[in-house]
Amino acid sequence: MVQYMTSHLDASFAALSDATRRGVLERLGRGDASISELADKFHMTLTGMKKHVGVLEDAGLVTTEKIGRVRTCRLGRRRLEQETAWIENYRRLWEARFDALDEIVEELKAKELAGKKRK
Question: Helix, strand or coil for residue 10?
Fold first, then answer.
C-alpha cells in the first residue's frame, strides 16, 4: 500500500510540477478541449502537447478520447485527495515546529528583557 501510494504521489507531483500541465488542468476545469486547442492556447506543437497530456493521463488527472481525427481531453476522475492529505500532514508538522520556535523566541525575549531590567 505504501509503495503504491508513493508511486501514485510521485506521478501526481511530477505531473503538477510543470506550469504548462497545471495550466492544462485549469483550462480543462472550464471544459473539454482537443489537443489541438490546447496546443494553440499554450503556443506549442501538437507533439509537445501530446507529451504533456500523456504525463497528466499517466497520473490519472486527465482522460482522452479519440473520435475520428480529434483527441478530446477532459479532467480525470482523480480529485487529488491523497496528495492533499500528504500536503496537510506536512503543513501540520511545519506549523507545530514553527509554534515551538515561536515559544523559544518568546522565552529568549523574556530572559533578555529580565536581564535588562536587572541592570
Answer: helix
Predicted confidence pLDDT, tens digits, the chain (119 residues): 455 467 889 999 999 999 999 999 999 999 999 999 999 999 999 999 999 999 999 999 999 999 999 999 999 988 888 899 999 999 999 999 999 999 999 999 988 888 777 76
Task: Name the residue range of residue 48's domain.
Answer: 2-75
Helix (H) or strand (E) holding 70: strand 70-75
Cβ-based neighbours of 13, under 8 Å, separated by 6 or more: 83
Question: Same domain for 87 and 48?
Answer: no
- Domain of 22, CATH number, reads 1.10.10.10
* Number of domains present in the structure of the chain: 2
In a shared domain, residues 105 and 56: no
Report the predicted TM-score, pTM, of the whole model to 2 decimal places: 0.76
| C-alpha Rg value of the chain to the nearest Å | 23
